[in-house]
Amino acid sequence: MSLVETKFLIISDSHGQPLTSHPITEAVDVAIHCGDLTDESKIEEFKRTLQYLRELKADLKLVIAGNHDFTLDVPAFQKLIQNAIPPLEEELVQKTYGGYEEARHLMESAKSDNIIFLEEGTHTFNLRNGASLRVYASPFTPSTSGDWGFQYHPSQGRSFDIPENVDVVITHGPPLGVLDYTNSRQRAGCPNLFQDIARTKPRLHCFGHIHEAWGAKLVTWRETLSQTPSHFTDIDNSKSTVLGNVSQLNSARQNGDVACYSAGCSIQTPDQQTLFVNAALQGISGTNQVPWVIGVPLPKNLRV
What we know:
Blueprint: E1 3-11, E2 28-33, H1 43-55, E3 58-63, H2 74-83, H3 90-97, H4 102-109, E4 115-117, E5 121-126, E6 132-138, E7 141-142, E8 151-152, E9 168-171, H5 191-200, E10 204-207, E11 215-220, E12 241-245, H6 246-253, E13 261-262, E14 273-278, E15 282-283, E16 286-287, E17 292-299
Parallel strand pairs: 1-2, 2-3, 3-4, 6-9, 7-8, 9-10, 10-14, 13-17
Antiparallel strand pairs: 1-17, 5-6, 11-12, 11-14, 15-16
Helix pairs in contact: 1-4
InterPro entries: Calcineurin-like_PHP (IPR004843), Metallo-depent_PP-like (IPR029052), UPF0046_metallophosphoest (IPR051693)
GO molecular function: hydrolase activity
Protein name: Calcineurin-like phosphoesterase domain-containing protein
């Protein structure tokens, strides 16, 4: 199969910040935002984030929602307003959040700037560099409270219908066992998501949500998967490599400013390896982590 090296810029969890501390000047083929575009889902936060995305030098910009972007999850937004105590003034809600569909219309209108808001599901793109890109996207994350948008209870689980031959998976949250450690040393990822990733083995899986687990790992899969795949049994850790974490980022910063972090790797066997990237920009003490810039070989678009 003929492959085309494709450069990606990956960010997540910007939480409505203007991101002036991340002046990305490098041109890429595809920019990805993995959700939490806002902190409180305010309409002005969406506008600020869209302006930042417009300024990126990328031919294609792909965006999904996160749990903080609850106005994009209309049923969740309606539930929050209806259950608010004391009741919220309708005029204030309109001014702060817009109408029930306003945030979605705003995101969809950005398509004219090559900013594509992805609903859950599979999407295919023909890139300007001659590559073909097949993406699966999902904004859903597990939560025991369900107070935000795009959430499901861990006891119920969720099926991620990732098809075969997907190149890139974009989710807001991580799979269980990969770049999902919290500061309390708990795994916060989704087991169902891990199982579907292990089954389909995309070239790249990018996400955020767990801020303190920022980093990247090139995973090599075992030749035979378990009946119920898990990070304990189905990752060949002897052939897998951590490409960056918060500690390494802090060390790099001691030598000067770091605008972005490069994975600096090559996926040698796409059917046996997956590059996982947690691109959460907001660290524990604020927006103090950086985007990732990586190269991924993609199939050539045979129609070119």
